[in-house]
């Protein structure tokens, strides 16, 4: 993967911005903020535990009395002119809260601005995103993913090239390719960065989880209405309930799913294990 600011056409010096004034508040980027931001420039996505570790490290090194939320807001106000933003979300795979540095431009980030992929490669990426978004399961089979090359217009791409691209998309944290299950889904980074694109382009398919209110691609769907719950949200919502019902307002239909045990953060590997930036 190229250097972060190469990807977005920015230079490192651009991070050293002057204070940004909004109403009466002044958001000043100090060295502690820059060190914290550097971690996101390296990893892109981090679970809350990792974020708090980097936050504590930054304060220990440079001092300061900050709360994490306001600390991130200050960074976001300074990197906003670069169309960048640190967003908080939930991993559909683990149910853990995480933070992600995304391209927040209105023209849908990676789909329009990327020096990391060619136009043809982005067309294939968009095709994968679309098929996954339209799938009731929030994923497609690896075979279906490779077969999408036959549906590309004015683009010639072999299945070998497509597989290489899938591997790159996974290393760059855009998709998750589950070798054991043979399925491909969208990674947290992709959902957070392309959230508006997904809702605008696939509004008939994209719904928010009834519990966490974030986009839900992989989860459990009500058979009587459009309500959907992430698997981990359903496990939490219906815990200790003998006869769970749809939580959507005005529905209340029986919820005919066996609930999995909730995945605890301590059971999960970190986002960065084996998935740091390529150099």
UniProtKB/TrEMBL annotation:
Keyword Coiled coil attached: no
Enzyme type, top EC level: transferase
GO cellular component: chromosome, telomeric region; nucleus; Smc5-Smc6 complex
KW Methyltransferase (keyword) present: no
Domain spans labelled Phorbol-ester/DAG-type: 195-246
Swiss-Prot/TrEMBL keywords: Chromosome, DNA damage, DNA recombination, DNA repair, Metal-binding, Nucleus, Telomere, Transferase, Ubl conjugation, Ubl conjugation pathway, Zinc, Zinc-finger
Main location: nucleus
Stretch list, region Disordered: 257-279
SUPFAM superfamilies to which the protein is assigned, alphabetical: Cysteine-rich domain
Organism superkingdom: Eukaryota
Reactions mediated catalytically: S-ubiquitinyl-[E2 ubiquitin-conjugating enzyme]-L-cysteine + [acceptor protein]-L-lysine = [E2 ubiquitin-conjugating enzyme]-L-cysteine + N(6)-ubiquitinyl-[acceptor protein]-L-lysine
Molecular-function annotations in GO: ubiquitin protein ligase activity; zinc ion binding
E.C. code: 2.3.2.27
Family the entry assigns: Belongs to the NSE1 family.
Record text on subunit structure and interactions: Component of the Smc5-Smc6 complex.
Protein name: Non-structural maintenance of chromosomes element 1 homolog
This protein's encoding gene: LOC106175676
